[in-house]
User: What shape does this take?
Amino acid sequence: MKKYAWLFIVLLSACSSSNDEPPYEINTKQFHQKLDEQGNKVFAYVVSVKANSRKSLNSNRPLTRSEFKSFAEHEYFEESSSLKLQLEDEAVRLLQSELEERDYCDNDYEINEVLWRELSVQLRGECL
Assistant: This one.
């Protein structure tokens, strides 16, 4: 019985310490469309994220281990390649649903260029 109680406490504490805060929050999504010189449909899709403020440290007292661990493990979007790749993948999914919703590309589409800014990704492509 005691083993189950300890197991329950360990699992409960692991759940309560997990961080449910998303690594980034999408700020805006913009879809731009036009016809190129040959009359082909082209598009640009821009997804921007909100800037996160930096965590400030209280320098009046020493950090606890948990505070230091939390500070060291926090990823900032501007500095994280993995978060940017996550956003790029999400932008592709959002673009696909946007194209379907607008019924913009009759058959298929191709993304020709991916442009990065500090807090946004732009996908440029054309309908096939």
